[in-house]
Amino acid sequence: MFYMIVDLSSNNGDVDFSEVSPAVDKVVVRTSLGYGDVDKNCSFYALHASLELIPLLYYHFAYMHDGVAPVDDATEQAEYFVSCIAWLPAYEDLVIDLEPENAQGDDTHLSQSDFGLWLQTFLDTVKAKTGKDMIIYSYADYLNRHLADGHAFGKYRLWIANYGNVDAPVLPKGWSEWYMWQYCEKGRLTGITTNVDFSKLNPVYVG
After folding, report:
1. 5-205 — its CATH code?
2. What contacts 24+ positions apart, CB below 8 Å, involve 75-80?
3. What is the pLDDT of residues 151-165, one digit of tens each?
4. Which of 31, 135, 168, 203 has the lowest CB atom count within 10 Å?
């Protein structure tokens, strides 16, 4: 069985979920970015997806601030993320999005050890407040550059981005399998006027 998953942010504009619902199995909604920045469309997307009975996931776009203690920065962002999702419809899972901060490729300057400390603090804080182990979203090159050899994050489910005509995604060090695969960044779907990311669930997790 093939699972179609789309992720949405305010970059996708207006979405007609009555048209989207027949084609998708899950919707991942961006709720927050860094600290104090909420996605302006998250409430609309979450409410209307839930009205169409589409299972929801929520994600936080990480901004790892240079010059701020990693534990303090991660805790603040995690608490903000939890506060944003508290008022939204019920969800299946939560995701931390790890990638460069903008289209120009601006990126964190944290060392691998501080990056790992930031990430573990964020994951632990969200787990303590929601009871959920988060999914990690990224791509192999990014995680390979920012995580130290022998890291312990492979215990978390991986949502890997890998586009192009490939049979399977490239995995970063520390993971032996993927949970979700974002295989297309320019998908077209009735009900969404912009390009949209397409992902699928690993068949081993399809019941």
Report:
1. 3.20.20.80
2. 75/121, 75/122, 75/125, 76/35, 77/32, 77/34, 77/35, 77/122, 78/121, 78/122, 78/125, 78/126, 78/129, 79/125, 79/129, 80/32, 80/35, 80/36
3. 999 999 999 999 988
4. 203
